[in-house]
Amino acid sequence: MCNETSVKTQGHSKGMSNGDMTLFFRYMALYEENMLVPVRDTFSRVFLPQPWREKIDEENLRAWFRNMYNEKAPGLYEYILCRTSHTDRLLQEMLSNRPVSQIVILGAGFDSRAYRFDPIIKEKSIQVFELDLPGIQNLKIERLEQYLQDKGGMPSHVHFIPTDFNESNLLDSLLSHGYNQTKLTLFLWEGVTYYLLPEGVESTMAFIQKNSLTGSMLIFDYITRDFIEGNPKECYGAIECRNSMAENGQKFIFGIHREDLAGYLEKFGMSLLEHWTSEELGRRYLELKNGQMLGRVAGYMNYAFAEIL
Ligand SMILES: C[S@@+](CC[C@H](N)C(=O)[O-])C[C@H]1O[C@@H](n2cnc3c(N)ncnc32)[C@H](O)[C@@H]1O
User: Fold this and answer.
1) How far, in Å, CA of 47 to CA of 53, rounded?
2) Disulfide-capable partner of 244 in 3, 7, 123, 225 (CB 3.0 to 4.6 Å)?
3) Sign of the dihedral defined by the CA atoms of residues 227, 232, 234, 236, in that order
4) Does residue 111 line the site of ligand 1, with CB under 6 A?
5) What pLDDT digit, counting tens, does each position of 62-94 carry?
């Protein structure tokens, strides 16, 4: 996300990948003890390397990171917390109320839901497919293997599939790892669409439509098209985020106008069940026990939950 690949930190200039940044935020969130809806991604401890954890564990440095992100990409930390909470909630609801047999996590990064929701996933014999670029996926496997070596080893319900959405044949990759097109599936696609070419987003949407059972579901987020078109004035944090990305030679590639989303999904045989602005998510998830808000959410982010017809 904004400036994620080259954040320079005090006394530490090593870059971070996109997946690392959301992980970093989720580890920081373990210290947010006053939230009414706490974000408790305990696996962020497993995935985040010790030197980064040690920095966040220090109160002063933690405050320094918060300030730095508030300047470089205002509202992004807050958005990641909201997104994590809302997807956790939807996932739990869907696993409890619908006969979901498979979860496909597109651009999984350091998503830990296959491990955090292990009891219900095992109880319902759900298969989880994690897709990502090979580099980040190999790092994740390495860190997991180390952590799980004396806890029964890697879970057999998780299947890792190295993939590039801009190039790969998703169907062949998934089928070769046991994906079943006739079973109800929940697709998670968080933090990814804005990095892809429009063709990469379209081919993934078309893939989901063509290769999943009716009633299957897709959770994803996207940025408003105004951000891409260089017209982000109305959105909180957009100008700072664009500038930080430009400084590092980066930019978001794909975005949609909010009012076009339902029509866009219709083209792929999907119906929009929930559509959240980031501000709505903030109101829902960022309230503190004392009635104040943790912060304001980056205004260019949007969150969608759709059903495949
Ligand atoms: C911001 S991270 C989000 C990770 C995770 N979904 C989360 O919410 O924590 C974006 C992820 O998308 C993956 N990604 C980006 N471009 C991709 C591509 N072309 N093919 C496959 N994965 C990609 C990155 O490797 C990274 O893990």
Assistant:
1) 10
2) 3
3) positive
4) yes
5) 999 999 999 999 999 999 999 999 999 999 999
The encoded tokens of residue 292 equal: 């104040």
One-letter amino acid identity for 97? Answer: N
CA of 132 to the centre of ligand 1 (A): 6
In the prediction, which pLDDT does 224 show? 95
Would you say residue 2 has pLDDT above 60? no
Domain boundaries of the chain, sorted by first residue: 75-308
Assigned token pair, 294: 């943790």
Distance (Å, rounded) from C-alpha 129 to C-alpha 155?
12
Name the superfamily (CATH) of residues 75-308.
Vaccinia Virus protein VP39 (3.40.50.150)
> For a pocket test of ligand 1, which of 22, 132, 201 has the largest count of ligand atoms closer than 8 A to its C-beta?
132
pLDDT band at 14 (very low <50, low <70, confident <90, very high): very low
Calculate the average pLDDT of the chain. 92
The reply to whether ligand 1 has any atom less than 6 angstroms from the CB of 161 is no
Q: Establish whether residue 1 lines the binding site of ligand 1, counting it when its CB lies within 6 angstroms of any ligand atom.
A: yes
**Does residue 110 have its Cβ closer than 6 Å to ligand 1?**
yes
293 forms beta bridges with 287
